[in-house]
Amino acid sequence: MQLPYGEIHHAVFQFLLTHKAIPESQLLHVLTRLYQTLFTAEHDAVNAESVYQDILDGVLESLNVKLIAHKLAFAIRKRRSQFDGKFVVMLVNTQADEATKMAIDHGEIEIAIFNAALDYIFNNEDGETSYAIGQTNLINIMKDKSAKYTATNAIELAAKFVQEGWLIETSKKKFTVTDLALCELHDSLIEKYGLASVSVREEDDDQPFSISICPACDQIVTMGRKCPGGVVPCHVKFHLNCARRYKIARGSACPNSSCSGVITDEVEPTDRIGLPQEDFRFTLYYQTE
């Protein structure tokens, strides 16, 4: 069901502009309330969630067409969250790299700190990638980049990265990259840290690549399940919920043709970095009369 471009499109875009990323179920709830308010008569004939889902899909598609037509550096993407496997709708900055994306809100030193934090998060040592950085290590990075950072200043900057949607703090007091950041930085992360399916870097034979792509959804994995491997260690990793869907659709054999392993319920690396500290949901501010 395609709506004429109008108030609902503007409201949904403003909502995404405010929140940047929101679970699809909550955005669907917002759209439903908007539709009930603006199209009372039509709402009486619309009583199925699937119809509202079609309306939402049409609204998001129309908004993306507008963004492209006006050559704005944004796109609306829908991805499954690593944290719970549910769809998240995101307003993504399509600028070239993290420095360009962050330049409006951060100075050169703060961008250098964020890049150093990424280096730590995606550092691959002995075939294992940490995917997270502890508060102490993050503070040390900040102090190394600038003597002006006290522990208090460093914690405030970390909180700013969290508030802006770049990082999220886990239950084990570590910071990892958010779904939104992984989506925005997808290409630059692969270019900088390389795909784990490639054994080593040409310029540094001792440093393996560290970015794993989920075979089920083609997105970066930092939380989920890894193949236990056959005769040799395997690079394949799945998002937690993607592994279940993959096994149902294609069986439990590892998609790596060089591996004889079987995809199991072994959890890696979620157990090491913890789940998000706060419930990964958003408060709805929209209310009808």
TrEMBL record:
<keyword id="KW-0234">DNA repair</keyword>
<comment type="similarity">
    <text>Belongs to the NSE1 family.</text>
</comment>
<protein>
    <recommendedName>
        <fullName>Non-structural maintenance of chromosomes element 1 homolog</fullName>
        <ecNumber>2.3.2.27</ecNumber>
    </recommendedName>
</protein>
<keyword id="KW-0479">Metal-binding</keyword>
<dbReference type="InterPro" id="IPR013083">
    <property type="entry name" value="Znf_RING/FYVE/PHD"/>
</dbReference>
<dbReference type="GO" id="GO:0008270">
    <property type="term" value="F:zinc ion binding"/>
</dbReference>
<keyword id="KW-0863">Zinc-finger</keyword>
<keyword id="KW-0233">DNA recombination</keyword>
<dbReference type="GO" id="GO:0030915">
    <property type="term" value="C:Smc5-Smc6 complex"/>
</dbReference>
<dbReference type="GO" id="GO:0000724">
    <property type="term" value="P:double-strand break repair via homologous recombination"/>
</dbReference>
<keyword id="KW-0227">DNA damage</keyword>
<keyword id="KW-0539">Nucleus</keyword>
<dbReference type="InterPro" id="IPR014857">
    <property type="entry name" value="Nse1_RING_C4HC3-type"/>
</dbReference>
<keyword id="KW-0808">Transferase</keyword>
<dbReference type="GO" id="GO:0005634">
    <property type="term" value="C:nucleus"/>
</dbReference>
<dbReference type="InterPro" id="IPR011513">
    <property type="entry name" value="Nse1"/>
</dbReference>
<dbReference type="InterPro" id="IPR036388">
    <property type="entry name" value="WH-like_DNA-bd_sf"/>
</dbReference>
<dbReference type="Pfam" id="PF07574">
    <property type="entry name" value="SMC_Nse1"/>
</dbReference>
<dbReference type="Pfam" id="PF08746">
    <property type="entry name" value="zf-RING-like"/>
</dbReference>
<comment type="function">
    <text>Acts in a DNA repair pathway for removal of UV-induced DNA damage that is distinct from classical nucleotide excision repair and in repair of ionizing radiation damage. Functions in homologous recombination repair of DNA double strand breaks and in recovery of stalled replication forks.</text>
</comment>
<keyword id="KW-0862">Zinc</keyword>
<comment type="subunit">
    <text>Component of the Smc5-Smc6 complex.</text>
</comment>
<feature type="domain" description="Non-structural maintenance of chromosomes element 1 RING C4HC3-type">
    <location>
        <begin position="214"/>
        <end position="256"/>
    </location>
</feature>
<keyword id="KW-0833">Ubl conjugation pathway</keyword>
<dbReference type="GO" id="GO:0061630">
    <property type="term" value="F:ubiquitin protein ligase activity"/>
</dbReference>
